[in-house]
From TrEMBL, chain A:
InterPro entries attached to this UniProt entry: AAA+_ATPase, ABC_Ni/Peptide_Import, ABC_transporter-like_ATP-bd, ABC_transporter-like_CS, MetI-like, MetI-like_sf, Oligopep_ABC_C, P-loop_NTPase
Domain ABC transmembrane type-1 residue range list: 87-276
Protein name according to UniProt: Oligopeptide/dipeptide ABC transporter, ATP-binding protein, C-terminal domain-containing protein
First-listed, main subcellular location of the protein, grouped into a coarse class: membrane
A single GO molecular function term of this UniProt record: ATP binding
Family statement: Belongs to the ABC transporter superfamily. Belongs to the binding-protein-dependent transport system permease family.
Gene3D superfamilies per the UniProt record, alphabetical: MetI-like, P-loop containing nucleotide triphosphate hydrolases
Automatic annotation (TrEMBL), chain B:
Biological classification of the source: Bacteria, Bacillati, Actinomycetota, Actinomycetes, Kitasatosporales
InterPro entries, sorted: AAA+_ATPase, ABC_transp_ATP-bind, ABC_transporter-like_ATP-bd, ABC_transporter-like_CS, P-loop_NTPase
Domain of life per record: Bacteria
Name of the featured protein: Peptide/nickel transport system ATP-binding protein
GO MF terms held by the record: ATP binding; ATP hydrolysis activity
Stated family: Belongs to the ABC transporter superfamily.
Domain (ABC transporter): residue spans on this chain: 4-234
Length: 640, 247
């Protein structure tokens, strides 16, 4: 995961996801097609084998009739029967060649990791050269080498598939081989071969399977091509390509006979494609989302938190935002917030508290199958529920910069695309702006760097590039979700400074999400503290130390070691763990971990209410805060 | 119990020198905090000790013996910064810990796995789960269990709490301190956070631009810093009070 953080959507095993995908219309179609194909391949030769081979000199080159559905060939053999019977050989050869291609590709692809550095480079370079070789030429060359005939053709086509598979596997294993978990295994002394079988192969299984199905479709086509050219299957054996070859002479006399093997090839190719789609769908986790008005009973239930006094001129206005999942779990449970023009607002809380989903809901990016509901979401006076498209007025920065960058495209190109698509710039203008923006985020020698692909960038530079992408337009709001968490701490500071600078220069507002209070305190003016899907406190950064009213905020602050912490005592921690989105939701969700909890806390939920100027807290016993009197009796009513 | 001694360690990437001629002794059973600013070479030094960064010159000695280019399970283990990247997403937690154990029978293995998971406060019944079912703090505990299962004489912890929630950071630090005292391994604790380093370390080493610029008992270094870098670091201890008023 690649890593759009979706804290409350647990990903399941591939098998599980496959099974789920097989139940969709796409899955059912693919499965049916496969079964039909398998049945024809197995039973075809048994049922129609005799008929397909029966020479009948009285019925040579006949057209379509009741006796011979597709007519007969130059020996009077039934063409329909021959097409059906050819299924087995066509499939067998295709699958065998695919196995050769995939296994060879895996071996060559993994080799650089297993072999030493020098041999590994040699393999990589060889594969690079072979990939650049035109595919068809390569097949023809190999077909001559391996000799005419079905076995030769099978090897030729299988071997010709190896380089592209190997390249794919090399790219995937290179990124996995560079991961921390492989490094950890190396330190533990895990041998090269175990490394491959336990860490590399399982992690590339999904994309490899997808590639194999695509390759199979291509191989089927190549095989038919070779047989058609007379280089593949030789008489008396026949596959679809050979049938095509035999019938082509008669295409003006009996066109169906010539077309039938071609149709068989296309249908089978489509089946492979469908299987590929199923794999792709099962491994991908992205899907369209739904955005809904809250059902009226729900908004009636949701008590209205005090609207902020700044409501009018606010840039973002959110009221009673909820993000739920079809199984009934609710991860964001009625969040209301406002962001002023140019304001830097922090959102803090433990992982899983709903910070990311709140941000994703603002950007209309909640992953499937999440459902977003809100009584109000406006952005710059624009109702997001009716039209969620914000174009370039909203910039989004994620924890993993690769979630926003396409690994295959040059960074400059990705940036200029934004300007071309959203701002209607010309190509040259867009390119100039991309370089300008890259230098604005202090990427050294921006013009040269713009021509590089993301993998040539360091983690910190990628994150800068994503920020630069956000700056291609004129954003009014930058949402940064844990922008520094995946970075080396040494780079974190630079990215934070950059965000602060972007804000001063563009006047954009900033919503900075982090689990780290120190990060937020450094950049923001105001902080929202989130717990179990709700905002429990809203306070100025200056009040964090010493002035927080909510026991949870105080516990968070207290858990941070300082230069005066006594090294001989245990660090303060918050006992227990936050509730899961599915847990029973009664009373204050912090109550099980709160030292100040009373019976009232456990039975009735405190609402987020305002006090002082612009501060809000959701707690029955806030520390040092004087709540307005009128909210107190609510509890007395509810308790009675 | 083991000690770790670095002698004249230099790490170069092409023409760039990431670590230059570092001498450092981590006495057995003690904790040395390694601090330094951006790109000062702390992580590279830690990686060099376990063979993940190329040592251009110098020696790594464990208990006085050269670590050299030996293979297999090393006496030095490393816990990484990011618990989301350091566990194989396709491997169960139990299998990850088992990978660190010497090859023995199946039953002996699973009791050992359970023992190490228990040691770091993870319910052994969770051994069958893959990491995506665990929170960041739990993953970091598993990573710690894996490192400890290799029975290291020396543990290197590289920014192990910086990706964790504050609420679990304290728990992981408490656990680490307790385990270090109980098992008695030597530890090189790398962090940019002086407050955290101060809490755990007997000795503090300061790096700047690849060089070790100051090293001494924690109290002394933090009270009477001798090098300008140390003074700067002390002045920018991460704090949650607003850093700049005018921004
Ligand atoms: N593989 C590498 N190639 C080139 N430079 C590197 C590599 N790894 C680290 N560096 C550089 O070495 C310097 C020290 O990095 P690091 O060890 O991460 O320092 P610290 O942990 O103190 O931040 C940095 O400038 C970094 O860019
Ligand atoms: S409402 Fe009660 S349980 Fe909840 S935070 Fe306040 S005092 Fe604690
Ligand atoms: Mg580092």
């Amino acid at each position: 995961m690649p890593h759009l953080p979706s804290p409350s959507v647990p990903s399941s095993s591939l098998l599980h996801r496959l099974r789920r995908t097989l139940r969709t219309p796409l899955g059912v179609t693919a499965l049916t097609a496969c079964i039909v194909l398998a049945v024809v391949a197995v039973l075809g030769p048994m049922l129609f084998g005799a008929e397909a081979d029966r020479v009948d000199t009285n019925a040579i080159d006949q057209g379509s009739s009741m006796a011979h559905l597709l007519g007969t060939d130059d020996l009077g053999r039934d063409i329909a029967a021959r097409v059906v019977v050819a299924t087995r050989l066509s499939l067998e050869l295709t699958l065998q060649a695919t196995v050769i291609g995939v296994v060879g590709g895996l071996l060559l692809g993994v080799a650089p990791t297993v072999l030493g550095r020098r041999l590994g480079r040699l393999v990589t370079a060889t594969v690079g050269v072979l990939v650049a070789f035109p595919g068809l030429l390569f097949v023809l060359f190999l077909a001559t080498v391996f000799g005419v005939g079905s076995t030769g053709a099978m090897f030729a086509i299988g071997v010709a598939t190896v380089p592209s598979m190997a390249r794919l596997v090399q790219n995937m294993t290179a990124s996995i081989a560079g991961s921390d978990y492989v490094a950890a295994a190396r330190i533990l002394g895990v041998g090269r071969f175990r490394l491959v079988s336990r860490h590399l192969l399982p992690n590339i299984a999904e994309p490899s399977a997808l590639f194999a199905t695509q390759a199979a479709a291509g191989i089927l086509l190549s095989f038919s091509g070779l047989s058609f050219l007379g280089l593949g299957v030789q008489a008396p054996q026949y596959d679809w390509g050979r049938l095509l070859n035999e019938q082509l002479n008669g295409i003006y006399v009996n066109p169906v006979a010539a077309l039938a093997p071609g149709v068989a090839v296309v249908l089978t190719g489509l089946t492979f494609g469908l299987v590929g789609e199923v794999f792709a769908k099962a491994s991908g986790r992205r899907a369209p989302l739904s955005r809904q008005q809250p059902p009226s009973e729900q908004s009636a239930m949701a008590p209205a938190p005090l609207p902020d006094e700044s409501a009018e001129g606010a840039l973002v206005q959110v009221h009673d935002l909820r993000v739920g999942f079809p199984d009934g779990r609710e991860a964001v449970r009625g969040v209301s917030l406002t962001i002023g023009h140019g304001e830097a607002l922090g959102l803090v809380g433990e992982s899983g508290s709903g910070k990311s989903l709140t941000a994703l809901a603002l950007a209309d990016l909640v992953p499937h199958p999440g459902r977003v509901q809100a009584a109000e979401i406006t952005f710059d006076g624009h109702d997001l529920r009716s039209d969620p498209h914000l174009g370039t007025t909203l910039a989004m920065v994620f924890q993993d910069p690769m979630a926003s960058l396409n690994p295959a495209l040059r960074v400059g190109r990705q940036l200029s695309e934004v300007a071309e698509v959203h701002l209607g710039s010309t190509r040259a203008q867009a390119r100039a702006r991309a370089v300008d923006r890259l230098s604005a985020v202090r990427i050294p020698s921006a013009a040269r760097r713009a021509r590089q692909r993301p993998h040539e960038y360091s983690g910190g530079m990628r994150q800068r590039a994503v920020i630069a992408m956000g700056l291609m337009g004129e954003p009014k709001l930058v949402i940064a979700d844990e922008p520094t968490t995946a970075l080396d701490v040494t780079v974190q500071q630079q990215v934070l400074d950059l965000l602060a600078e972007v804000r001063t220069e563009t006047g954009a507002a900033l919503l900075l999400i982090s689990h780290d209070l120190a990060v937020v305190a450094q950049v923001c003016e105001r902080v929202l503290v989130m717990y179990a899907g709700r905002i429990v406190e809203d306070l100025p950064v200056a009040e964090l130390v010493g002035g927080a009213a909510h026991p949870y905020t105080r516990a968070l602050v207290g858990a941070i070691p300082t230069m005066t912490t006594d090294p001989n005592t245990e660090l303060a921690t918050i006992p227990g763990r936050p509730p899961e989105p599915g847990d029973a939701d009664q009373g204050c969700s912090f109550a099980p971990r709160c030292a100040l909890a009373t019976d009232r806390c456990r039975s009735t939920r405190p609402e987020l209410v305002g006090f002082d100027t612009g501060r809000r807290v959701a707690c029955w016993h806030p520390v040092g805060a004087v709540l307005p009197l009128d909210v107190r009796p609510v509890d007395a009513e509810a308790a009675s | 119990m083991s000690s770790l001694e670095l002698r004249g360690i230099t790490v170069r990437y092409g023409r760039f020198t990431a670590v230059e001629n570092v001498d450092l002794l981590v006495p057995e059973g003690t904790v040395t905090g390694l601090v330094g600013g951006s790109g000062s070479g702390k992580s590279t030094l830690g990686k060099a000790v376990v063979g993940l960064a190329p040592i251009t010159a110098g020696q790594v000695l464990v208990d006085g013996g050269d670590l050299g280019r030996r293979r297999g399970r090393g006496p030095v283990q490393l816990v990484f910064q990011n618990p989301y990247a350091s566990l194989d997403p396709r491997m169960t937690v139990g299998a990850a810990v088992a990978e660190a154990l010497p090859r023995t029978g199946r039953a002996a293995r699973s009791t050992e796995v359970a023992r190490y998971l228990e040691l770091v406060g993870i319910d052994p019944s969770r051994a069958v789960l893959t990491p995506d079912a665990l929170s960041g703090g739990q993953r970091q505990r598993v990573a710690l269990a894996r490192a400890l299962a290799a029975r290291p004489g020396v543990l290197i912890a590289d920014e192990i709490t910086s990706a964790l929630d504050v609420s679990v950071q304290g728990a992981v630090l408490n656990l680490l301190r307790e385990l270090q005292r109980e098992l008695g391994f030597a530890m090189l604790f790398i962090s940019h956070n002086l407050a955290v380093v101060r809490y755990l370390s007997d000795q503090v080493a300061v790096m700047d631009e690849g060089r070790l610029v100051e090293c001494g008992p924690t109290d002394r270094v933090l009270r009477q810093p001798e090098h300008a870098t140390t003074r700067t670091l002390l002045a920018c201890v991460p704090t949650i009070s607003p850093a700049e008023e005018a921004s």
